[in-house]
Design brief:
alpha+beta; Glutamine Phosphoribosylpyrophosphate, subunit 1, domain 1; 5-stranded antiparallel β-sheet; 5 helices; about 35% helix
Length: about 220
Amino acid sequence: MEDDIKKNILKTGTSILGIVCKDGIVMAADRQVTAGNIVMSKREKKVWPVNDYLVVAGCGIAADIQRVPRVLGAELRLKELRTKQRPSVKEAASLLMNMNYSGIRQPSMIPQQAGFLLAGFNENNTFELYSIEPAGSIIKVEDYDANFGSGMPYMLGLLERQYTKNLTVKEGAELAIEALKASTQRDIGSGYGMDIFAITKDGINKVVEKELISELK
């Protein structure tokens, strides 16, 4: 298990984060994309809305991170049309889990290598956050999680000391900023900016969109 965790963290090169608050959920990510020791992009979005009630963040292979949420959104829409009911957050997370599991279990030249955080609100106004790790297992998150991004150890250390159950979404967003600052300062796979979404009873709102630029003078 320890070897598997080390391998996954080394391959992901990302900081993603979900924080459960008393009035909603905060989802955040940095913007750096790497290929080995090379920074390929400084402006890549790693967290975005799937539809009007779900937000997903991914770590791992860029192609998988970009593809899976689009397929997920389409499959959820088809399910809604067939059943005449909006899929719950748990149903969406289960579908994403099956996609991840199939992506690494089916014979392939390049198996899927990505972990995800998925959060949203149900029609009964409850909020849920799920972590779907690269091998396909699913965990309902009751406080916070960073999946297997390379920035995970730096963020979890800070959150372990500063997170409380009574955080508001506003306070959760501020905590997410501090957590991303910690990871981008120490993790070579994270940096160059941050995007933070708040999921509340009022819907999905982007509360932080910040670019970090290093200038030579």
